[in-house]
Amino acid sequence: MGSFKWINLFIIIFKYFLTITPIFSYSNEVPNFLDLAKEPQVFDWMVDIRRKIHENPELGYEEFETSKLIREKLDELGIPYKHPVAVTGVVGYIGTGLPPFVALRADMDALLMQELVEWEHKSKVPGKMHACGHDAHVSMLLGAAKILKDHEKYFNGTVVLVFQPAEEGGAGAKKIVDAGVLENVSAIFGLHILPGIPLGEVASKSGPMSAGCGLFEAIISGRGGHAALPQHSIDPILAASNVIVSLQHIVSREVDPLDSQVVTVGMFQGGGAFNVIPDSVTIGGTFRAFLRESFTQLKHRIEQVISGQAAVQRCNATVSFLEEKKPLIPPTVNNGDLHDYFKSVAGSLLGTDKVKGMEQMTGSEDFAFYQEALPGYLFLLGMEDISAERLPGPHSPYYKVNEDALPYGAALHASLAAGYLAKLHHEVLVVEGKYHDEL
């Protein structure tokens, strides 16, 4: 009986070294993905894709030509895919087609703004521009797909490529999740290219990374009249003014100072004459929080304060959170185990000194919808080369992408996916070995 157990253990160890070592240890049998991504046949290919997408920006759920280009490139690579997913989305598959599954995500949509950068590949669509790097995100994920497809034989599982529509306020990630294409996925990784971080470096953190985001709008109704006879009116401007001041008290007087939250009123519309009290006033704004429970409580208190303060001034208030147009985006919260894994992979690929921490950001990211459904991890990819130029921030009409960053994103995507499949396969073998040994 003892010899039988030892034979079983020998077989398990042999299977482990046969199947897992080549890719998980990044031995000489598997080329360095960063070196591959910098090769002209990959780098130039990514640059060409990025520029084509940049010239033809499309808004959320309108990315039909972008989606078509992605499918053409996947066809060239021999990568099967599902389409349409979430209107214009594409989901590709590399590997065995069997578990385990790990996903990589790129968003596709552009912004409603006029590009002011004069260059050969400037947006050809008036009033639309890729000003947040999503064109680069798509090209990097396709670059990773090209590399991974060439090394498919090393896989023990499947890489799921998620080309997502409508990140910019359209909650495209939620539609991807609702479509059910990620039901058996063990983890999902995503990146966002960003100026301000040096080229070749990455930044991220464990836990809350980006704030949850919501919008609100309130119509405060009173009774209009002549400004010289306010006693005959119910003044909604006065009521709205009290509402705005009281909303700021939520954060300053009710919230733990260590639990960062934001309430901002950015719109105030009411009245059209100097000597007339209007019937109603409309105000609107945004709110942010880093914890799900804080985000929910903040939304609740905003509605209470608006209604209550309007009532004090004898007005009525109708509050809307505009969720049918702009769904609430939950906080982006990075999985702790995936954070440790990311630091290990990125450190091996770039050098440990190139992997930085970061502070929380009050901007929002709909990658959070994936993280509510499965373990997920988002990181920032640097592209700043101060010896060349200082790059404007996202959502600027002068936004530029340093295309030298593309190989870093492609290599990180590929390394995270391939390594994670190997990690999962190793864990399965260890568990199987444990149970066999007990028999």
Helices and strands in order:
Layout: H1 2-19, H2 21-24, H3 33-38, H4 40-55, H5 64-77, E1 81-85, E2 89-95, E3 101-107, H6 134-150, E4 158-164, H7 172-178, E5 185-198, E6 202-203, E7 207-210, E8 212-221, E9 225-226, H8 236-254, E10 261-269, E11 276-277, E12 280-289, H9 292-312, E13 316-320, E14 332-334, H10 336-350, E15 355-356, H11 368-373, E16 376-384, H12 406-438
Parallel strand pairs: 3-4, 3-5, 5-16, 6-15
Antiparallel strand pairs: 1-2, 2-4, 6-16, 7-14, 8-12, 8-13, 9-11, 10-12
Helix pairs in contact: 1-12, 4-6, 5-6, 6-12, 8-9, 10-12
Regarding CATH, which class of the largest domain?
Alpha Beta
Number of strands: 16
What is the share of helical residues?
40-55%
| Estimated share of beta-strand residues | 15-25%
Oligomer, anyone?
single chain
Report the major sheet.
Answer: 8 strands, mixed
The radius of gyration over CA amounts to: 26 Å
Summed up, the helix count is 12
Low-confidence stretches: 1-7, 9-30, 431-439
As for the CATH topology of the largest domain, it is: Aminopeptidase
Organism: Vicia faba (Broad bean)
InterPro entries: Amidohydrolase, Bact_exopeptidase_dim_dom, ILR1-like_Hyd, Peptidase_M20, Peptidase_M20_dimer
GO molecular function, one term: IAA-Ala conjugate hydrolase activity
Cofactor: Mn(2+)
